[in-house]
Amino acid sequence: MIQTAEENGSVRMTGQLLGTSTDLLRVEDVKVSFPLATGHVDALKGVGLRVLPGKITALVGESGSGKSVLGQTIMGLQPDYARVSGKVLLADPSAPSGTVELLGLPRDGRQIRAIRGSKIGMIFQEPMTSFSALHTIGNQITEALRIHEPVSAKEQRERAEDMLSLVGFTKPGKVFDMYPFELSGGMRQRAMIAMALICSPSLLIADEPTTALDVTIQAQILTLLRDLQQRMNMAILLITHDLGVVANVSDEVVVLYQGRIMESGPVEDIFRRPQHPYLKGLMAAIPHFGMAQGDRLRPLRDIKVDHDKLMTAIGNAKPMDTASRQHEAPEVLLSVRNLSKTYQTRDQAWAFRKPSAAPAPAVDGVSFDIRRGECLGLVGESGCGKTTVSKILMRAVTPDAGSVIYDDGSGPVDVLEAKGDDLQRLRTQIQMVFQDPVSSLSPRMTVGNILSEPLDIHRRGTPAQRRDTVDALLGAIGLGQSARHRYPHSFSGGQRQRIGIARALALAPGLIVCDEPVSALDVSVQAQILNLLKDLQKDLGLTYLFISHNLAVVDYMADRVAVMWAGRIVEIAPRETIMTAPVHPYTKALLAAVPYPDLERRLDFATFAGSSALTSVNWAAAFRAEASQMAPLDLGNGHFVLAHKSADMAELKS
Amino acid sequence: MFRYVILRSLAMIPTLFLISVLVFFIIELPPGDYFESYVSELRALGESADLAEIDMLRERYGFDQPQVVRYFWWVGGMLHGDFGYSFEYRLPVNEVVGDRLWLTVLLSTVTILFTWIIAFPIGIYSATHKYSWGDYGLTFLGLIGIAVPNFMLALVMMYFANIWFGVSIGNLMDQQFLNEPMSWAKLSSILSHIWIPVVIIGTAGTAAMVRRLRANLLDELHKQYVTTARAKGLHPTKVLLKYPLRMALNFFISDIGSILPAMISGAEVTAIVLSLETTGPMLIRALQSQDMYLAGSFLMFLAFLTVIGVLISDIALTFLDPRIRLGKGSSK
């Protein structure tokens, strides 16, 4: 398979090489390897690509494919122990041959420094750490100017302020003197772009520029990048793992897999006629909207749930008397009413006087029901309070007000008040799957210990039975028995997440809270985990609360979806209704901001040109009333939207 | 910001008050007072004590008054620069301490400067050349520096100075200048003596500081903002000096709080071994002989320096680190 891949790649590459005179950047047969204690790792195994002037070239690949290493190597920023060979040619009209070869230049020497920042700019994934917290934004932006163009201090400031207003700051003079930590993530990424573009480079290398951002902010930043690219006639090498982003902004696409180029060409070819099996597989593994109810994702490497083993495991784990209860169980498993939580900042906790402005609540009057056997999706941007809700359900955070009633058929239990034996029993009933599979498993316990710990705590069965249960669980999630004696660090991210799921299943819970279970995983692994969760739900009749910021994932998993904004649930409805006929402006904005990996459904860039589309200022009056005036209005078919009590429903729907 | 400095300075007052109460009562804790131990010492030597004179002194210094009254006398005196009377030396505390105080300050300042001047370049070199032979060598030397006690180093140096060069390296100046007014001759005598205690006292501190600077810099060197700065085309040395080093400076500043008191009380043992004319040996002697005003003044002075040192580092940090200046809390 790899053989054909290289042939494919080389055929397309030769096609490209014909047009060399116009290329802005040409990477030829670049190899990078890192020495290890035992041998070495080849990060790039002979990569070639080109970047046309004034075009956006996307470099796509999963983590570990070597895409970031390539970006660094072009700039000469790779770690100094890396061994590099090959050529990187940058068009330079002032050079006698018309190009400069970058890899041959002395490391950190004068020539390469003259190119960094001036001819090639670079932005990174993490806007939080890309700035020094001790220097003002202005200082760090004008630094590139001071290095490359000797201009007066006054002119530096003017140029920087011009650039800041170009990237969308309304008060550039103020931002110039601010410190990075005073800006939000999206604003910082804008400032970062201004910093990279201050010397008007002809090429911008953007390494996952929107991965750390919320989907609406991502849409804004993508809009901005595209706009600037056209205005400054600049080329962008966009490094990303997100095919949705690629489809929406790029002109050419290069697909990288394990240090090799699998496929490259214009975006139309790549998306309409993918050639390579890897790319085809990747496309099939991404959840996209409009999937029919029964459609399944096709992961690159599928995991079969071993049904028999699963049933043994769960059978072992269940206390004896539960089976009989299932019959008379009520429809609603978990009922949440008027949950509120306000976090106090450290200042406020110590203040003698009441602070003049009350802090915004993290969760504000949240009510919802989870029905037995369904998957309720909870969607919202970072900071909207969705994780706080999950922590309250787990009794990890105590709410200021509200009630949570859990009823699996053995009588209602007040989750927030339960004590002693009730609480112990409740602990077995509600389990959690966490976002980060690395930090949520103890590195000092073997997988066997991790999985049997819940059984030990709740004293289920004899030690021999527990061992059988653990083996059955491992089999059910597609890991062999040998995994029992290994430690988490010897597993990949996807495998670790499967272990996390097995741990949650060990006690045969009624409800599993999944807090962003796939957002730390690669696309190909994501499909695997989602399918595993779906199969388990089908086989065991599990109930999920599925928290995610990724609408496509929620669309794939959930039966009903609740949209959260600023601590409140603004809309809740069955999945199809939310996706096809959203009513609340926030839901609409959220849906519009998702980049689809589909050339037919591109982002509407005009919507995101300003930042105003996403703030509540532009919402219809009915959605902007005082909190006390708002109530969930019933639109029929289980569709509720938070609006002014007296709002006209027909008007809302329009 | 200004408000913060004011509030922060005012917060020192209750702290110092509490410390003064503690110091006073701890000094009073052992049974008896200076005069009793003085009388019993005289008796042990078989001499008769002039009880009338002692009673007079007792009355003069209020030892017949209740403790609370004496406390306020003591604190009140300190407020206008009267630190009381040293019974052992039969002199006001001010005069007893005299030269020693500023000699201590001089020695300590020079030691700190020496530490910084040596530690900074070595720390930077070690961090930027991690796991090179240079780094290993310097680490080895540094560990020896940390492991060998100062007084031991002092003894070794004294021994070899005597054997090889036939000179005595004790004291801070030639003895004829003791209690002399300042003169060029005295200054040059001090300068020619001072480098030996500086090197001896500074060794451990330098080594410890190199290790900490190296660790701090290593943390910072791999941060994203360093790559960002390099991607702008900045010279690697300038990158190092402007960003990671600046970040790593914070811990030097927070160190001031502990450096100031260590200046006065630190290195007593070395000072005794080298018979330096600093305050350390005197403090120990005063505590032994229950010379309460002398000891109390010393302890108060140490506390004052600690509080001032922390104040200085707090204020310097708010000036240097905008995250503290503008972060939640202080801006309100």
UniProtKB/TrEMBL annotation, chain B:
All residue ranges annotated as the ABC transmembrane type-1 domain in the record: 101-311
PROSITE patterns per the UniProt record, alphabetical: ABC_TM1
Swiss-Prot/TrEMBL keywords: Cell membrane, Membrane, Transmembrane, Transmembrane helix, Transport
Subcellular location: Cell membrane
SUPFAM superfamilies assigned to the protein according to its UniProt record, in alphabetical order: MetI-like
Pfam family, one: BPD_transp_1
UniProt membrane topology term: Multi-pass membrane protein
Family statement: Belongs to the binding-protein-dependent transport system permease family.
Descriptive protein name: ABC transporter permease
Organism: Cypionkella aquatica
